Amino acid sequence: GLTHLPPDSPVRRQDFLLGVATAAFQIEGASNTDGRLPSIWDTFCRAPGKVLNGDNGDVACRHYEKWAEDVELIAGLGVDAYRLSVAWPRVMHADGRKNDKGLDFYKRLLDRLREKGLDTYVTLYHWDLPQHLEDRGGWLNRETSYRFADYADLLSRELAGRVTAWSTLNEPWCSAFLGYGNGHHAPGLSSTRYATQALHHLLLGHGLALPALQVNDPAARRGIVANVGAASPASPTPEDREAARLFEVQHNAWILDALFKRQYPDDLFRLWPGSEPLVLDGDMDVIGRPMDYLGINYYFRVHVKSDGAHGYTEVRAEGVERTQMDWEVHPDSLRRLLIGFKRDYPGLPPIYITENGCACDDRIEDGRVRDPQRLSYIDRHLSAVDGAMREGVDVRGYFIWSLMDNFEWAFGYERRFGIVHVDYDTQQRTLKDSALAIRDFLAARTP
Ligand code: PNW
């Protein structure tokens, strides 16, 4: 069971939203069915050496076919909500016209989820940019921000009434830094100058999309999802403390200052000299448009030391718990970060933890999937959320990443984040022990 979470925690109440999350590219498969166009991840997967084992998203979890079974799975867990993303390349043709076959898939899916009483949290962009837009410069081209706003307009007109809450972007930091800054993700470019420009166009697209969502689907809430990082200094020296602060500027303030202070942090450009993006008059006001909620994704802490100049280097800490991703487990950092955001950003909207979870070495034993580390990880992070709420942070919900094992980006199918196991030979889904415990926990909540 969940033994860390205090018995009187608000997280145990039915009004605290608990859900599971996925993303289109990671589960759907059917990569050229019903007129779906190629995305930058289809291209990236085909470039040698970019994705572990040469894996790709062509089949994934076959969710495009098995969606009805998967809705039963979600409903059977007893969660309140499901967070999913729409594949932009499924719902729009290259000339901007809608693709009804792709749209119908999401209409059926959302209708069934709502019939089951589930709230629907829909992300517009979880990294699968249509390749034809990348061919025109992708997020380095300001035009892409306007194409994203067109997509948001079309999608919110088509899906109005079926969505509880929209999220424009998932983790723009990852899109910009991993995609354009270090090349670990699609489209695989590496320059900090590119990263800051891509991030600016991503956030501009976010801001441009907000009015369309409001007009087309006024009953739905609107937000964005930011991944946040935590750093501890490798030693207590002022230099290493400054390094840890800079890491958090680069991961958190870069995005959150833009959204909630309408400026990029000066420290970012001391860290990356000469990397200022081109910002036109009025852009920061578009980026800073108000939202109904902020989604936060949190996974791990790192240790850093000074690089001897104006930057930081990551160091590998010994004697700490790690996951299958080699990520350091540190729940209290989530509590600390949430309290810091409340302090640093007056007027911050309510927060949902839109992703948290862990990849583990699951043990399969006579039909059971044992994953004790995962349940413990979730339990301790829910306790950290409880701790932040006790300090006055307005957290309304928490989504487990992920519903089921899926395509883990550059790590392919080798890293498993699901609370449901997927056998990729048979496509059979099996509840792991963590899922069984969470199902029991959900059933025992207090009104
Ligand atoms: C997030 N990092 O990705 C994504 O939103 C999910 O699609 C993904 O499956 C999940 O977290 C687990 O990785 C991240 O290197 C990828 O800091 C990489 C990082 C953070 C988040």
Automatic annotation (TrEMBL):
Its EC number is 3.2.1.21. GO terms for molecular function: beta-glucosidase activity. Transmembrane segments: none annotated. Belongs to the glycosyl hydrolase 1 family. PANTHER family: GLYCOSYL HYDROLASE, LP05116P. NCBIfam families: BGL. This is Beta-glucosidase. The lineage of its organism: Bacteria, Pseudomonadati, Pseudomonadota, Betaproteobacteria, Burkholderiales.
